[in-house]
Amino acid sequence: MSSKANYFQLSLYAVLFVLCAMCFSSCNEQSKKKITSSSTTLTLALRSGLYAEVIKSCLSDFEIENNIMCNVLEFSEDELHREVVANNGNIDFCMADSSWMAEFLAKDVLANLSDFGYELDDDIIAATKTICYHNGDVYVAPYYGNVTVLLFNRLMLKEAGYKPTDIISVEDMLRICRVAKKRHNLGFMYRGDTANNIVVDFLPILCSFGTWVVDERNQPTIDTPSFKKAVEVYAELISTGRQAKKDDLVAAIANKAAAMGIGWPGWYTPTKNSMMDYIAFSGKRAKKAIPYNSNIYGIWTIGVCKESRKKELAVKLLAHLMDKDVQKATVAKGGVPCRYSSLNDEAVQAKFPQYKVVLKALEGGVYRPVMQEWSEFYTILGRHLKSIFDGETSIDTALREAQIELERLMKN
Questions:
Q1: Cβ atoms within 10 A of the Cβ of 382, count?
Q2: Which of 93, 200, 238, 334 has the maximum number of C-beta atoms within 10 A of its C-beta?
Q3: Helix/strand/coil (H, E, C) string of 119-130?
Q4: Structure pTM?
């Protein structure tokens, strides 16, 4: 090809590129103009990090279709709680930790979604919906499926004569950790740095004994034989290892310094060749025992603020975000829907095989107690459990004193 012809061809490409760029820019400006020309704005208060990023990835189509702007405000957990409670009409839509539900209902923070015709469908995992209702009406929807799982080191399981599918009870966990300790490694790692972490790590074991921290009237059930038995077994389990903060716990299990610990799927994404993996808790104390829901939820829900002046539009946004196709699309962005259609999808499981475990954990999950006093409750309980695990107080004494303090708390 001659240099003149080559020059002509390059010039033609350049012109076409500029025309395409101008066309794209024009289309983009028209879309932007369509949105920004509207006077309607929805303000969203979201938990910062991945949770907010997942929701933001779903907003564009909704904004264009409804000719609105979504103003996204991102907060830390504590900041989000304060902002939503103090809301005076400036926030229309919010994320809410499941443990805030009792307080939010008592303070009339959330709009009744049933009043606007919104209901939770059967594709949403049943156990994840229990927190969402009050007097039969829907107030929030389960959006991001955080749930506890059992982290373990694959090689250390094999050395103990186990496969992941063989871990079907707390007794199996204890046997594996004993073997690890005999081989001069650590067995069970647990988080003992805060009262909340101490309690949350203990709850899956407690549930496996068929008991809980409160009864159906939210009255403490700490100084009871079943609770005591669960503490005894857990104390033996943690005696095979040591306490650690999250990052150290994950590193120890991944690097074969420890056999197992309790964690969350977001902490670690296992691959085919990784040393660490996780499974859902079976909810069984022993091999032949009755299974109980024992995977503890940390689910983030979404709701509409009672003080919003645009509740109908905010409910429409909530319905959009909870749409099964929209939710399935969030998986690629790091979303964890509480939907069978997303977590059971063949393409999703082929790319993210760990979601099979997440699905099982969500199916066998349980929310922490719905009470306004929960932060005070776990602070008291965590302090007494720590005194047991540190060898400062006997189990009988610590549980008796915890029961007295918690009864006083709930009475007041």
A1: 20
A2: 93
A3: CCCCCECHHHHH
A4: 0.88
